Amino acid sequence: MVEHSSQEGPRAAPGETPATVDQVAADQEADPAAEAARLRAAAAAGQPGAYRAYAELLTGRGRLDEALPWWARAADAGDADASRTLAICHKDRGEFAEAERWYRTAADRDGGCAFGLARLLQEAGDAAGAEKWYERGAALGSVECKTNGAVMLAARGAWDTALERLAEASAEGDETAARARRVIQDMLRDLARWREALARAEAEGDPEEAYEALRELLDPDRKAMFERYPRMVAEAEALYAGAAAVGSAKALVDQALFIARDPSRWDEARALVERAHGLGYDGAAYVLGVWAEENGELRTAEEWYRTADEADDGHIWARFNLGVLCVRQRRLDEAERWLRATGVDEESRDPFDEGEERIITALESIAAIRADPERMPPAEWAERLPGLRARAEEGGPDDWYAYADALMRLYRLPEAAEWYRKAGTPRALLALGRMLYEGGGAKGVRMVPYYEPAAAEGDAGAAYDIGRIHDEAGDRRTAQIWFRRAADLGHGRAAWWLGWTSEERGGDPQHAERWYVRAARSGLVPPAFLAGRSMVRRGACAEAEPLLRIACEGDHEEAPYWLAQALRGLGRTEEAQRWLRVAAETYPDLLRRYGDMARLAVPDPR
């Protein structure tokens, strides 16, 4: 990383530790209950530093629900670190407005809160707000704010100011700033070198040399550079535009690849690639095929792949993609012909070549589908299709949806897509989005608009799917917002995700337990186990028992041990022994499957 991150657990920032904590640190191990009582009494009496000391104790014991009001009292008393801790806790819980409120209570006087607020705004897409608070935090003495603010300046191309501030932060001992400064300096040297090489090619009027001068820009190792410094995307686009002006059709395609990073310029990018195709660059057709497939334009994708194969006298990856398209549509004989036309087969494959392995895997998938009638188009739907077609031609959206649904079941995906689009209802668009994203090769957040109308009508599954798309795209914040909406609508897997995120990423077992319980209500076994285990750990054995029984009935391997512990805690020793015997019988299987990791989850019940 070349900037400071805010991935923290719910704890206080470094600062002044109240003397009360030091005085009783030894007693805490000897008598934790007495220590808690002492600190609670001190906090209730309003003794200096006691709010925070008691909040820290509760937080350290995983009792964040009880800690939050005491953190709030400390923050209201002027403790900036308490404000920051509250903000971190609420952010980890996905309560972003509340997190922002607590950061703002102290951001104007505390560098740590200014940093947290800036990060929160940056993650929400408010670049101007983030820069403002990084600036304020730097003025308050936060070197992290100085570094991150400088990186943001570099991201929009203010190189000189960014380097100057990174040098200052580096001089203050921030190694992150030193690394970022070296990265930017190297990047600017590379940029100057690419410009010089392009200028030489322009002077000679050599299109091929102009393109070759920029080849390093496509190195996969530079992907992170473009993500972190968007200004470099604009620089790359300008360089390729220069190479295209010299006459390189290939440069038009690469210019388009950089333009396509901005969704609002999608049509502009596609037009450039089509222009490159018109100028005779065969590879442009393949790119157009990939883009069409990722956008869910199945017929168009197939046409461009065929064009790429014909123009290039055998384009191996166009053939592979055609094969995969045909597999998805159960045109299996045609799919096999395309895949074997790549020249890769089971006998001659190179097991260390990832590309060849993909082709062999696709061939194996064809064999598996042929061997499983359940994965072939169902005959009963083929018989019903003519009647559904007749009703669709005379009817309205419901009939169009029904016909599209039948076509989808028969794997006639391009036709199904046309009828789903014609229907245009939230239900039809949702079905179209799922068909394209989950089985049609479409990718990325461009599919989200198909799900949004159904989500707006309260469809929990649609909201969950939007969260999943954003999660797979790496946008955790947006994913968390949508999973929360889905969970509030009753979606069990969304609640499970929120619980896991809260526990594993945020260190907040109480919040996690609530989400696990909600997930368990939908009938999911793993979160029922997780909720029950959490309850046993905090001594709520009566609450845990029914959840752990659900998990045992669902054959969860770890549940018998924890059910035994719950029963033991309830004083039902004989029942506990029976379940411990069940746990002991399955424990060797756990060890074989998970190795020593199993011992961390379940102590040996034998």
TrEMBL record:
It comes from the Bacteria. The keyword Coiled coil applies. Keywords: Coiled coil. The keyword Coiled coil applies. Transmembrane segments: none annotated. Residues 177-204 form a coiled coil. Residues 1-33 are annotated as: Disordered. This is TPR repeat protein.
